[in-house]
Amino acid sequence: MKKSIGIVICNYNKQDYIVNCIHSIFASTTEDFDLYVVDNASTDQSVENIRNAFGNTVNLIINSNNLGGSGGFNTGIREVLKRDYEYLMCVDNDVVFDKNAVASLRYFLEQHPEVGMVGSRTFFMDDPERIWGFGGKIDFEKYLQNDYYKNCLEGEDVPEWIYCDYVPACALMTRVEVVRKVGIMPEENFIYWDDMEWGYRFNEAGYKVAAYGEAKVWHKGGGRNSQNTFIHYYMWRNRINFFLKVLSEQDREHFADTILDEMFRMIYSVNLKGETNIVKTLMYAFDDAVHGVRGVATTGKVLPRFSVENRVQKALEKWESVIIRFNDDYEGIGNIIRNIMKIRPDIKIRISIQNCKTNRERMEYEYPGYQVTEEFSPGTDEFSLFMCSHIFSLTEDDESGNYIDSWCNIIFNEEDLMYAKNFKKAKELFILCMKNLLMGI
Prior knowledge:
By secondary structure, this protein is an alpha/beta fold. Helices cover 37% and strands 22% of the residues.
């Protein structure tokens, strides 16, 4: 019997999740689909587990190499396009479906002829009432992507459905006739920014992209590998390359100033922490982006990350007490206190409100258990900390001392203080050297 939906799952080394994902799809209220699973040369037991659990009920395609998320999906999409399906679905391997999700996505497309692609309301698998993603916006002011309603709880004024710039490829449905016109996923990305770019293409071609809340799925999410610089390379390369492709010439200068400012802040920060391999990878990503290098990263661009010393722990290791002075904006002091107590639960913390409008009673109420003082008078055996908006906002006029910001970046010696105070000049030089590359000059 002819089916109207071709579902494509892309899998790579998720033997613990792929079988559950397939089971949840087969438990759907509709059976009007064929299921294609593309395995990206997994090295675990994924293929064996799929064969043992589902036999010939799943169309299993095994790639000889890892083609990335976009390449894996496109392998299956090409198979779907060979046949006479009306709808196409893309599904991540670590997603579990509500039984109504597949039918709900098709229903939405049937009711909204202006929509070419629709995504689900995706929840965290480990926090099943909290939203992982529900469509998103491509920000052309800060040149990044923003997921709508991320971390909101179900029922927190989240609409039933919305138009958006993109939907995550973890559980989306599109019309086959539209894919034939717009094209398949940007395979050259390998991974990251492929679903954003695909959604952008749909919108540019005149087809709306939407997210529909009645289609519910739960996503485990792979997490970000802290062992290497994989995500730093692909996220930055594909992000920069995307905006270079779509921006007009008159918008290039603002883009260059904005993206180089953000990139340099990250470079300067991780270099202070000693994570030099991230610095190298970011520069490889930048160079490849401006020269149009795509696909899988060549050898030596994704590098190992080595454990680095916790700088807050290093600063406090010889002290039994710490006193923190902050400005009027004290929102971040809670994060600082939590970070310190996680590292040194035995340390004594005093909070100074000297020269602040905040009154003592309020601080004592909000931070019970910590001594609040109206003066800043560190004891001889007490480590003093000035809370600032960001350590790289320090200038030549700021006094010597120890500084910490709400992200727990910390300055605790004269060498680091000089490094922080040189941030502005170093950033100006970096942008001057790199800007023409992004401007196409």
